[in-house]
Amino acid sequence: MSEISSGNVRKVEVVCSPELFPVYFDNKDCVVVVIDVFRATSAICAAFESGIKSLIPVTSVEEAITYKQKGYKVGAERNAEIVEGFDFGNSPLMFKDDRFAGESLVLTTTNGTRALEIAKEANNVIIGAFTNLTAVCDYIERLDKDVLLLCAGWKGRFNLEDTLYAGAVAQKLAKNLRFQNLSDSSMAAIDMYNNAKDDLFGFLGESSHRKRLSRLNMEEDIIYCLTEDLSDVVPILQGDTLVSHKE
Amino acid sequence: MSEISSGNVRKVEVVCSPELFPVYFDNKDCVVVVIDVFRATSAICAAFESGIKSLIPVTSVEEAITYKQKGYKVGAERNAEIVEGFDFGNSPLMFKDDRFAGESLVLTTTNGTRALEIAKEANNVIIGAFTNLTAVCDYIERLDKDVLLLCAGWKGRFNLEDTLYAGAVAQKLAKNLRFQNLSDSSMAAIDMYNNAKDDLFGFLGESSHRKRLSRLNMEEDIIYCLTEDLSDVVPILQGDTLVSHKE
Questions:
Q1: Residue B5 pLDDT more than 70?
Q2: Could you report the predicted ipTM of this complex, rounded to two decimals?
Q3: Are the Cβ atoms of A158 and B191 closer than 8 angstroms?
Q4: What DSSP designation does A26 have?
Q5: Which of A23, A25, A151, A158 is best to mutate for the B interface (most B CBs within 10 A)?
Q6: From the candidates A150, A184, A208, which should be mutated to test the interface with B, based on the most B CB atoms within 10 A?
Q7: Chain A residue whose CA is closest to B160
Q8: pLDDT at B199
Q9: Which of A60, A234, A235, B223 maximizes the CB count within 10 A of its CB?
Q10: How many CB pairs (< 8 A) connect A and B?
Q11: Going along chain B, which residue ranges are E strands?
Q12: Which domains does chain B have, with CATH numbers?
């Protein structure tokens, strides 16, 4: 490891809201991990694990309608529910069989697809969820760039679940000497993940979004989204389209 | 406490960067606690404890120069150091005697005075530091409004020390039934404060700003800024000027 000096240790920074992305984004050649644990990025990972060919994230329902009119299968979620007239929302359980295998899907969600749009300025954009945690870390280590862990949050606000996941990634990466240049936000996220990791579901008991999903009877989704390493697929952005990369 | 329903429990939200203030600010009649532990708000509290009459926060060095030319005693700090030609920076230790007693001071700092400027949209703006922690909580409880704990951060980024303090305030307030409507960010800050409270200095050992101050031999400042309840003065904003309120 003699080639590692403090000068080329990679930065690992947690960005706890898309609104803060411009503050942290100072190196175009970094890798941005887009995180929306409940549930957009968990659903996207599940979709690729089930064999879809590609997924086009779009920010507005209007854009989503245009794709629908062209014959695409299109998902749309707002405020945790499927928008009427669309094929699916952001539940990962929609992809537990292979009904969409080989297809090119389109998706818009409240927070996740907006975070993806903002992240596009970076050269490398990937999708992170607890369900592909180890694959994401392996991919980043191999790529060997500065890392921004971009939490989608809730309408610009900090949320617990995305920051917990960011802490899980930062902690795994920090075991590698090359990824030990941690921001204050990464230290806080790691600290919180260590407190929570033995019972993520319980830790999130009072969180705003778990309560929101529980009210909608989505406990099964929550449990799925908090399960580590169900997939070794890392969805990566190529142009405007997510495609599958297998670690 | 029969008058308390979930409808009128006060919101307590941590805003971990001034950039996020617009996202959280949805009720003008709230109280905003401006937090810049290292060191602007600790210095402002120390200045009032030492008997100054008032303090005008300004955002630019140019404005500060204008006041200097009018004969005011003016402080200016950028990147943790006193700007040349000014009377003081943001070290609270500058106010350990009463040399400025009775005076109206002016101050500009890298992060703290900018956060104050952003907070001015709210009806009630106060200054928080570990050194006046209990007085701040008492003031908020008496005022009985929704609370935004506004962390100045470092140039828009999350920092550990301001969020720790926000967690200390949120936790103290949450003992009162009226202040139990916590945001995800408040829950995270409380969790972090509980981890750190027995050794705040040690917890901050790797934080970016403690390292920055340590390089400048400011350990004594750090220890001062992490000491709870040295003062029962709450600086409050009246128009463009901070004045003293004693709990």
A1: no
A2: 0.93
A3: no
A4: -
A5: A158
A6: A184
A7: A184
A8: 94
A9: A235
A10: 78
A11: 11-15, 31-35, 54-57, 73-78, 81-82, 104-108, 124-128, 147-151, 181-182, 233-238, 241-246
A12: 6-246 (3.90.1560.10)
